[in-house]
Write a structure and sequence with these properties.
One of its GO terms (biological process) is fatty acid beta-oxidation. Its EC number is 4.2.1.17. One of its GO terms (molecular function) is enoyl-CoA hydratase activity. Residues 320-498 form the 3-hydroxyacyl-CoA dehydrogenase NAD binding domain. This protein is α/β, with parallel strands linked by helices. The protein has three domains: 3-286, Alpha-Beta Complex (2-enoyl-CoA Hydratase, Chain A, domain 1); 317-500, NAD(P)-binding Rossmann-like Domain (Rossmann fold, 3-Layer(aba) Sandwich); 504-649 and 651-712, N-(1-d-carboxylethyl)-l-norvaline Dehydrogenase, domain 2, CATH 1.10.1040. It contains 31 helices and 20 strands. The strands form four sheets. Strands 13-12-11-14-15-16-17-18 form an eight-stranded mixed sheet, sandwiched between helices. Strands 1-2-3-4-5-7-10 form a seven-stranded mixed sheet, with helices on both faces. Helix 17 (408-419) links the parallel strand 14 (399-402) and strand 15 (427-430). Helix 1 runs parallel beside helix 3, helix 6 packs antiparallel against helix 11 and helix 11 (253-265) packs antiparallel against helix 12 (270-285). The two termini are 44 Å apart. 50% of the residues are buried. Bound molecules: nicotinamide-adenine-dinucleotide. Nicotinamide-adenine-dinucleotide binds next to helix 14 and helix 17.
Length: 717
């Protein structure tokens, strides 16, 4: 053994031939990553290799299913709190080891047998060649975390695969399939998974024999890119136009910093270029966006871990049923079937069943079109959905999800009817958007088996499912519903019961803030533009058009009943007023905006001057608002209600609340969620802002929890 660490082992594969294996095999944890320990061991192992005299070539390998997942993102939180100059020094130290590894006096081949992402991909780049298994992935996803490759990745990729390909790989952060990586030159060969090691050794031997000019391959990376100034300008101009059409540099500054750094270092020798990369990386890592996106990644992991823990106590689910074949019921049936779960779909109208089935086949046909499925698979999936108009077979399902109209009387009747037909331990779940689960449970004989399972529209696309625990809901019912949501490919978050649960409870005060702005004279288009610029995928007027003004008005009534002190306005708002004029939003082609169907059959939003005339009826003032005032008022209403949900124990942690808002309503991910937003503004500043707008009503007033946090100098994270 040449080197034995806890994460890295170096040993001869063939001592006579001088071939060494540099193996990543973390003793702790299921994946290899560049954590502190691995970084230290890497430095030590390189120093030993530098002193070894009889090595002729080296293969970098992994003993895990994943090659190397990247840096340890958990460690980023502490690192990124350091001042930029300390980060810069730290990066140069790690890069020194990578550079020295690259310059070892023998050829090196990476045997990529799984995901080689971020630092894992950068590890392969310090080898001369890369051989990838067919099911491996390779990429540089760092910009998704608000940073960019910092172990030489931004320096080596343009030299190896060209400026355009490197910029695309870094800006999109995508994980390349091996065939695509081969096309752009990010890997040199793709082989069967079981042959990766043999092929890498074979290639290495050819390097040792002089059949491959590995030294020239290395030299390419050490020297500036081989493009003249005009070619470079063209490459950067085209790539920048494409990149910045997608990523707003103000929202995602890491992409802009990466592009700028690459532009500045492509003409420098490698060592100098690394310094440019390190300085720009340190800048990116200390932005609030990096803190938010790294936090988001960690929150996502925490939420998934919670779901996994819940699922341990779940009952088996082999068959499900859904009541209602409407927008949601149809979507739920499709989603269950597409994950292989048989599901009965019951409605009272045959036309609805037909609609539900045709929507499911449309979605499946699209997958076949895109090459993601086959006609045979599509047929098998469709056959898992069993449409029915009667309750004949309801003795078999393990869970029944109710998705009939949002009317408590109808829901109560349907739920108690079905309770008499199912097994004693069948879980009954309601997909209600707003009605309290504890209230609906009152009509049931076995309220412990009843739970909320709130999907979002469109079901196949929206990742979140709120699992709502009513007063009497059993732990097993929660666990089983969590497990089902996971089985359906969703991310469940468990919340306690109240009108609107977590996501809609927070969304209604936000719509309330919108209504109040309109009442006081604001322009709905300006509000939409401002909030979209702030980072929301759609502004509130557009959002309510998509949700449906009827659904909004109906939900608002339930919320007003539950939280009269802040969700029951003493005036008629714009949403209700437009609804009364017959405007339902996208579903009938007119809401705040007009909608036309485009060539692809998608609704296209158009301005409608008549809306302004109609809104005059609910406007009692003619104030104008600047962008900041709009943002502050909208965000205070949203964030305050999130904090109240934490205060009331509706949601257990800031991490879950933030994830729910990002996945459920599209809260700007680069802001990390409402709790992170408050933290980044500063709790004291945020409370002061609440005080400034306190005269507008309870929705804007700082919750007690925030005042206490402010006094104690606490933050959410
Ligand atoms: P929808 O009107 O599209 O569908 C309701 C379906 O229920 C109709 O097909 C109707 O025929 C059927 N139905 C009525 N009474 C029935 C009965 N006794 N037995 C069986 N079927 C019956 O409504 P939707 O938008 O799918 O909403 C369904 C539920 O999901 C509601 O509680 C709603 O609040 C909730 N939800 C809706 C959305 C959304 O955006 N649409 C999002 C989340 C949750």
């Amino acid at each position: 053994m040449i080197y034995q660490g806890n994460s890295i082992q170096v040993d001869y594969l063939d001592q006579a031939a001088g071939i060494v294996e540099f193996r990543f095999d973390a003793k702790q944890g299921s994946v290899n990553k560049f954590d502190k320990q691995t970084n230290n061991e890497f430095v030590e192992a390189v120093a030993i290799l530098e002193k070894s005299s009889n090595i002729k070539g080296l293969v970098v390998s992994s003993a895990k299913k994943v090659f190397i997942a990247g840096a340890d993102i958990g460690e980023f939180v502490e690192y990124f709190k350091k001042p930029a100059d300390e980060l810069y020094t730290w990066l140069l130290q790690i890069n020194d080891a990578f550079n020295r590894f690259e310059r070892l006096p023998f050829p090196k081949v990476a045997a990529v047998n799984g995901a080689a992402l971020g630092g894992g991909c950068e590890m392969t780049l310090v080898c001369e060649y890369r051989v990838a298994g067919v099911s491996s992935q390779i990429g540089l996803p760092e910009t998704k975390l608000g940073i960019f490759p910092g172990f030489g990745g931004s320096v080596r990729t343009p030299r190896l695969i060209g400026i355009d390909n490197a910029l695309e790989a870094i800006a999109t952060g995508k994980a390349y399939k091996p065939a695509d990586a081969l096309k752009i030159g990010l890997v040199d060969a793709v082989v069967a998974d079981e042959s990766v090691m043999d092929s890498a050794v074979d290639l290495l031997k050819k390097c040792i024999d002089g059949q491959f000019d590995w030294q020239a391959r290395r030299q390419e990376k050490l020297e500036p890119v081989k493009l003249n100034q005009i070619e470079q300008t063209m490459a950067f101009t085209t790539a920048k136009a494409m990149i910045f059409a997608k990523a707003n540099p103000k929202q995602y500054p890491a992409v802009a910093l990466a592009v700028e750094a690459i532009e500045n270092h492509v003409n420098l020798p490698l060592d100098e270029a690394i310094k440019v990369e390190a300085a720009a990386f340190a800048k990116a890592a200390t932005t609030p966006q990096a803190a938010a996106l790294v936090g988001l990644f960690l929150n996502d992991q925490a939420v998934k871990k919670l779901a996994k823990d819940y699922s341990k106590h779940a009952f088996d689910i082999n068959e499900a049923a859904v009541l209602g074949a409407g927008i949601m019921g149809g979507g739920i049936a499709y989603q269950a079937a597409s994950k292989g779960l048989p599901i009965m779909m019951k409605d009272i109208k045959n036309s609805q069943l037909e609609l539900g089935m045709s929507e499911a086949s449309k979605l499946l046909a699209k997958e076949v079109e895109r090459g993601k499925s086959t006609p045979e698979k599509m047929g098998r999936t469709l056959s898992l959905i069993r449409p029915t108009l009667n309750y004949g077979d309801f003795a078999t399902p393990d869970i029944v999800i109710e998705a009939v109209v949002e009317n408590p009387a109808v829901k109560e009747a349907v739920l108690s009817e079905v309770e008499d037909l199912v097994k004693d331990d069948t879980i009954l779940a309601s997909n209600t958007s707003t009605i309290s689960i504890t209230r609906l449970a009152k009509s049931l004989k076995r309220p412990e088996n009843f739970v909320g399972m709130h999907f979002f529209n469109p079901v196949h696309r929206m990742p979140l499912v709120e699992v709502i625990r009513g007063e009497k809901t059993s732990d097993e019912a929660v666990a089983t519903t969590v497990a089902l949501a996971q089985k359906m490919g969703k991310t469940p978050i468990v919340v306690n019961d109240c009108p609107g649960f977590l996501v809609n409870r927070v969304l209604f005060p936000y719509f309330g803030a919108f209504d109040l702005l309109i009442k006081e004279g604001a322009d709905f288009v300006q509000i939409d533009k401002t909030m979209e610029k702030f980072g929301w995928p759609m502004g509130p007027a557009y959002l309510i058009d998509v949700v449906g003004l009827d659904t909004g008005v109906h939900g608002a009534k339930v919320m007003a009943e539950g939280f009269a002190d802040r969700m029951k306005p003493d005036y008629k708002g714009s949403i209700e007023h437009l609804y009364e004029q017959g405007r339902l939003g996208q579903k009938n082609g007119i809401g705040f905006y007009k909608y036309e169907t485009d060539k692809k059959g998608k609704p296209k939003k158009l301005a409608d001057d008549e809306t302004y005339a109609l809104l005059k009826a609910v406007q009692t003032d003619a104030q104008s608002f600047d962008e900041q005032a709009i943002i502050d008022r909208m965000m205070l209403a949203f964030c305050n209600e999130t904090v109240r949900c934490l205060e009331d124990g509706i949601v257990a942690s800031a991490a879950e609340a933030d994830m729910a808002m990002i996945m459920g309503v599209g809260f700007p991910p680069f802001r990390g969620g409402p709790c992170r937003y408050i933290d980044q503004l500063g709790v004291a500043n945020y409370v002061a802002l609440c005080d400034r707008y306190a005269h507008l009503g309870k929705a804007y007033q700082a919750p007690d929890k925030l005042r206490q946090m402010c006094d104690a100098g606490e933050t959410f994270y």
